Amino acid sequence: MKKVSITIKEIARQLGISKSTVSRALRDSSEISEETKQKVIDLAEQLNYYPNPIAISLLKNRTQTIGVIVPDIANRFYSSAIGGVEDIAYSRGYHTMIYQSHELLERERSATRHIASRRVDGLVVAISSQSENIDHFASLQEQGIPVVFFDRVSDAMQTHKVRVDDYKGAFDATEHLIKRGCRRIAHIAGPRPVSITRFRLEGYKDALRKYGIEFQEEWVLHSEITQAGGTERTYQLMALRERPDAIFGASDRITMGIHWALRQLGYKMPDDVAVVGFCDLAMSSLLDPPVSSVTQPSFEMGQQATSLLLDLIESKNTPAEFETRVLQSNLVINKSSMRGANG
């Protein structure tokens, strides 16, 4: 049996009023009396009337939908951030469409084309590791679709940005290792083009500089943000003539690779090699030994990025100045770095 779709015309017929009166009543127009509004609302509920979303989007020039692009939804950091995005979006009457770039520029560009064709109202994005050129995001902005960056940001485009203090997180992690007596501290960094890679590398270098430890190029290796990448780079570091006594990992997956490789090679953490990484705390606590972690407020990052995006969507004017919000990370010490030293 075919389902009958209730329209404004049917409500108007049953109440003996015009379609425009019903439409204004449903929009809570001040031109319509409270008595008529209530009659319209009561009958609409009784008939299970739902407004046509396509018609509403054309009327308002909005779809009440935002896009989210992340490198990998299976990454706990990004799944948590998406939770923050959806929390704010839902509270303000918006739906979300989620895309994964899988760290590929072409996948990211394809997502932006789909976003533009679907009349999505705005975009929250953590850019892929291949995205040195961000013309596809600038194109969206030029089409009137605002874009807000989070976590991985770009200075090549003027818009709101929300990120963590990657520099301080890396500085604190490296300083902690130094205070535990480590002097040959290696760093497995992420891909070079990514903003978080640059900030974390600078924090690492400045901590070494503060304590008079010479920076060694051979102790810094770049990797894809994968467990396999962390494993391979750890094998390379531990094959050096002067092997490191500590390794700082730039992401949770890289750090998992470090942890796995050291166990496979028979090194004890932290006695032989101390380990700290930018990690999800729940994940790091499951490892043996548990890993010292620089944790990040991913849920809050998603919330703040979405609030800024929705303000852009709903504002009639471009803001006089775009914001860059920098949230604080937190170093949580665990057994993987607790070597016997003062500090």
TrEMBL record:
One of its GO terms (molecular function) is DNA-binding transcription factor activity. It comes from the Bacteria. Residues 6-60 form the HTH lacI-type domain. SUPFAM superfamilies: lambda repressor-like DNA-binding domains, Periplasmic binding protein-like I. It is an enzyme of class 5 (isomerase). The keyword Transcription regulation applies. Keywords: DNA-binding, Isomerase, Transcription, Transcription regulation. Its EC number is 5.1.1.1. The keyword Nucleotide-binding does not apply. PROSITE patterns: HTH_LACI_2. CDD domains: HTH_LacI, PBP1_LacI_sugar_binding-like. This is Transcriptional regulator, LacI family. It comes from Dyadobacter fermentans (strain ATCC 700827 / DSM 18053 / CIP 107007 / KCTC 52180 / NS114).
